[in-house]
Backbone:
């Protein structure tokens, strides 16, 4: 049983974002930018990569597939990307229900001829395999924008769950995830600019020729989805939903800071209500933005639990980021009231939500694999065997680093309470779930031209340093402890 004497908490402790730390992060941002520019230069001059690619599935299928007009085979296109000819869907569907994996591969072969060069044949209205290096830059900007915006909103989600569930254990650390949300405006800005400038390279459905009846590129399936998948509505959804996150996050933080000055329970009750509103909005918006931001990259394919899957990936990476931040602040001699019991709870979240992510991964994979319908299994064939095995390694590393490793590593009680172990586990989980988003974005955007080069490492370094900089600024701008939080003493006594 926890003792009930009063535990003193240093309520005025502050994180100092030193000039040295700031200059170091700015240096990392500059290095990241330089690496990205080097990667762009190498890609623009085709140094280290072939410009024209053969069929992504050349090694998978022995029998060649007829591809009139460079991959404009109606049956194959009906399966996923169909730059659609009127009979495409019916033909693919008719074959689909008795398909074996082999004939799905045949569908895939033709389909990937349009996709290996970034979907050039169907997207650009011509038969040529057109690929431009900028496609890889936009895809990486989109990937990092989505991933780090997710980390930011999960900080706010964590705070909202604490208020709505009336949790006491977290009262002494709630300011830390609250600071994550300060990155949301930057994430939104990056995503809007990337979409406006590079949207055609990332999203197949943005091409107008797909919706013109009589055009060789006309796609009846995408035409049927046009009410939802269109550029103005896409941008409206992004701005409204992320704008709501930003607004509610700022209101919750403002109430928490005002509570420091005025005390009482009224601001806690206000945040309780605001958090409930946020969770309702987040439940809808996180799923819809998952459809928009990652699932619509391959607009013929869909999964009914993709919103949950994306949330699970964001969530466990966000909890890992929280764990790393807490351990870092404790290493600085701050948050002395946050002890092994609090770290244990964060470690339990990392452990539990790694399993939750795996449950959703398995649920999505097994049902699609077992049903063996070509227009569904294409998503996984691309990632396991497509593009001459370009993503096979990442696919299996993804499962290992996001499930096997945290499951075994965090199983014991001590592992969840030891700062060093938490650092290792949290770092692995963050890297692993960045790879998870890499697998969601890259096969459908750059396909065979994907890789891990200067552009990838440079942009990750740039985004990570920018995220840490913005969050550190926010942490330093207010006391680290919500000193008049009504449950602060309960947090100080937390014992498991």
Residues:
């Amino acid at each position: 049983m926890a003792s009930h004497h009063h535990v003193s908490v240093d309520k005025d402790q502050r994180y100092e974002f030193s000039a040295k730390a700031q200059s170091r992060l700015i240096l990392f941002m500059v290095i990241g930018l330089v690496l990205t520019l080097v990667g762009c230069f190498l890609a623009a001059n085709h140094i280290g990569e072939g410009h024209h690619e053969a069929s992504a599935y050349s090694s998978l299928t022995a029998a060649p597939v007829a591809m009139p007009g460079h991959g404009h085979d109606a049956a194959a296109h009906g399966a996923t990307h169909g730059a659609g000819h009127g009979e495409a869907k019916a033909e693919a569907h008719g074959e689909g229900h008795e398909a074996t994996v082999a004939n799905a591969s045949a569908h895939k072969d033709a389909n990937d001829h349009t996709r290996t060069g970034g979907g050039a044949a169907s997207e650009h209205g011509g038969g040529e395999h057109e690929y431009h290096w900028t496609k890889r830059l936009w895809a990486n900007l989109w990937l990092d924008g989505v991933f780090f915006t997710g980390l930011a909103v999960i900080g706010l989600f964590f705070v909202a769950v604490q208020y709505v569930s009336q949790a006491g254990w977290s009262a002494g650390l709630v300011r830390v995830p609250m600071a994550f949300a300060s990155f949301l405006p930057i994430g939104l800005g990056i995503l809007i600019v990337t979409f406006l400038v590079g949207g055609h390279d990332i999203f197949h459905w943005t091409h107008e020729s797909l919706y013109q009846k009589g055009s060789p590129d006309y796609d009846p399936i995408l035409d049927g989805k046009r009410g939802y998948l269109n550029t103005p509505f896409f941008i409206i959804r992004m701005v409204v939903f992320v704008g709501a996150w930003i607004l509610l996050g700022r209101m919750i933080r403002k109430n928490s800071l005002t509570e420091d000055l005025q005390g009482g329970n009224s601001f806690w009750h206000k945040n309780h209500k605001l958090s409930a509103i946020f969770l309702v909005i987040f439940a809808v918006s996180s799923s819809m933005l998952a459809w928009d931001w990652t699932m619509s990259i391959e607009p013929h394919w869909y999964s009914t639990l993709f919103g949950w899957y994306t949330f699970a990936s964001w969530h466990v990476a966000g909890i890992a980021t929280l764990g790393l931040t807490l351990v870092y602040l404790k290493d600085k001699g701050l948050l002395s009231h946050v002890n092994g019991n609090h770290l244990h709870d964060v470690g339990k979240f990392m452990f539990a939500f790694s399993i939750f992510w795996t449950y959703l991964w398995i649920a999505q994979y097994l049902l699609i694999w077992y049903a063996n319908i070509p227009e569904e299994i294409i998503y996984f064939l691309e990632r396991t065997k497509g593009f001459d095995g370009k993503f096979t390694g990442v696919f299996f590393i993804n499962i290992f680093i996001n499930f096997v490793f945290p499951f075994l590593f965090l199983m014991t009680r001590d592992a969840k309470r030891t700062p060093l172990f938490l650092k290792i586990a949290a770092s692995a989980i963050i890297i692993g779930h960045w790879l998870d988003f890499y697998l969601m974005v890259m096969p459908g955007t750059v396909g065979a031209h994907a890789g891990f080069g200067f552009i990838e490492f440079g942009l990750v370094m740039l985004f990570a340093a920018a995220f840490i900089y913005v969050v550190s600024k926010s942490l330093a701008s207010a006391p680290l402890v919500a000193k008049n939080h009504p449950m602060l003493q309960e947090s100080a006594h937390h014992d498991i």
In short: The two ends are 9 Å apart (CA to CA). Residues 231-262 form the longest helix (32 residues). Confidence is low (pLDDT under 50) at residues 50-129. The CA atoms of residues 134 and 229 lie 23 Å apart.
